[in-house]
Amino acid sequence: MFPESRPRRLRRTPALRALVRETHLDPAQLILPLFVLPGEGRREPVASLPGVDRLSADLAAEAAAEAAAHGVGGVLLFGLPDAKDAEATSSWDPDGPVPSAVRAIRAAAGGLVIATDVCLCQYTDHGHCGLVGDDGTILNDASLPILAKAAVAHARAGADLVAPSDMFDGRVAVIRDALDEEGFAETVGILSYSSKYASAFYGPFRDAAHSAPSAGDRRSHQLDPPNRAEAVREGLIDEEEGADLLMVKPALAYLDVIRDLTDATDLPVLAYQVSGEYAMLHHAADRGAFAFRDAYLESLVAIRRAGARATITYGAVDAAKWLA
Ligand code: PBG
Prior knowledge:
By secondary structure, the protein is α/β, with parallel strands linked by helices. It contains 11 helices and 10 strands.
């Protein structure tokens, strides 16, 4: 009790604060998302996401090499195909933007962890994450073989991790079986977006990835924001189905869920600081609310402190520079 107890003694100097610090950020535990276009020499700024560009495979490889040079641990690739149809056939094209970028990045920055987003929403003309039935239902079981084909295409190109982000039931098991059958049992892991919410914070991403649904929404498959126990249940189901890593998404508004899932599973839990969270920090900083760097690094520490082993974030390269 005061006056014997004075916690401020341990905060008096930088060295004392460093001595007792509980949480550290390591660039090796940051993952940079990249939006990849077909073709060559293409760079298109994303209006709603400050500092983020869509890049063709050659420029994505340069960006990945720069990230690796600053110690960033990995990249997560999103494909922006030229061709979209109702069956998402371009999602498993071996020469699609994602497999092409995987090969280019492997050649330019071999040591980097290369993860690929597996979902159909960027590849369907209706913008839904799977096939859609005649009555407008987003079909679960019929979509699974297509997700598995996309995952196998990414694995064949050389991805380390495939990351299903669709939130359909049973997809981790189906993808694991397909990878095993194709000879990737020992080499390709599954980073499951296990606990992904139907969130308003994906707004800028849907602009970046041209993946907003033309009608309807994602609430029949993504988690309902008020639910907490269900997010843990989803994570444990994916662990059971063979996931190697779990994920909570978004991050900042779901720190309780990151903590719950971290406590409930033996697998590493990752967090995705999504487009809207990242844009929000930029816009607030631009309006003078705070310095971007301070607020951004604080947000990354908070996500780590909540239990996330690694974080997917659009500012991974800046963070790595600032942490150096
Ligand atoms: C689906 C996917 C989305 C994001 C990552 N993967 C969008 C969605 O579910 O609508 C959002 C990421 C972000 O907002 O940064 N392929």
